[in-house]
Amino acid sequence: MRSILRPTGRRAVLSLAGAAVLGVSGVAVAANAGAAPTAGHAAWSRVCDAPAAGDAACHALRVTGVSEKVKAFGVTPNATPSGFGPADLLSAYNLPANGGAGQTIAIVDAYNDPNAEADMNTYRAQYGLPACTSASGCFKQVNQTGGSKLPRSSTSWAGEISLDLDMVSAIAPNAHIILVEASTASMTNLGTAVNTAVSMGAKFVSNSYGGGESSADTGYDTSYFNHPGVAITVSSGDSAYGVQYPAASPYVTSVGGTALKRDSSTRGWSESVWYTKAGEGAGSGCSAYEPKPSWQKDTGCAKRTVADVSAVADPATGVAVYQTYGGTGWAVYGGTSAASPIIASVYALAGTPSAAVPAADAYAHTSALNDVTTGNNGTCSPSYLCTGGTGYDGPTGLGTPNGLAAFTG
Questions:
Q1: Which residues constitute the signal peptide according to the record (predicted)?
Q2: Which of 181, 206, 263, 306 is most exposed, with the fewest beta carbons within 10 Å of its own?
């Protein structure tokens, strides 16, 4: 039986940089409960409830309260809007505007968000992005087998769905989008949804969920994730050092997370490993079961190493999201759930993948990434599995996008 890393419903109060924790409370509270902010800090919570055994949890984190100092930084939940928007993300990762034409990106999540299309288009209208509707053929919302009878609605997974759709909109606004909603959060249902996404023509499939590793994972690889020429991105998890599945699959691009801040450098931005002493941060490490892919060359792990690349994930430096089913409008989100759809969309900007496993392209173009060299997500040996450094490291992989060259054949 799969061992699952379960969200506890814990509430954390984070520093602006996302590096220090001033208080942890309410272990038994609901997953989307808030915490009173402390001066200079932001409070956030996981949006998905603890899963049943054998299920996966979504990796979205929603900011629930902020102080005046954080508001000055630009993070003000339920205002219009706050957190990083499309222009910020395109600037941080040196990406072209108005990209994605001719490409189809799929989002795989569990359960249904009945407001998904309307909320996504409110986000797009706010930032001057083109509408993407079912009427125009740009947007499709289907069940795990591609049908129109959608699963039961979930206010928790709706937050994940809103985050995913908004990040695709931000990075690749001219792409078509397929939202495939699994009946439950079991790996078999989520995996079936991945197969459906590919069968419907998506060359880029984002998955922002995971659970503990299992000896069954290599079988799931064959059944659900082995799609040559399709960029399947998976968030590495929000529980800091440690490996989750399906991020550990050698057939996917495993996406870690960073704290992203503006600075006075030539790039105009800086990033560090996302981690808090509450035990939240980008997942990383050495798989217990999965074989090492030929294109991964680090020497401290004989099996598959997590992650490959990364993007912003720290909720204290989070992204703007619009959500009304289970939300009240504008909010700030983080978690490696933000990073996975960002990277899937970067692949879409770069064009149809040429490598059988598109993750291999990044390892052939390491100079075309922003190397993240500071921070850690815990303690480990060898240290690169949990510590940012020059070249490859576990929490951020090879780094974050610096244009499209690392995502092309």
A1: 1-30
A2: 263
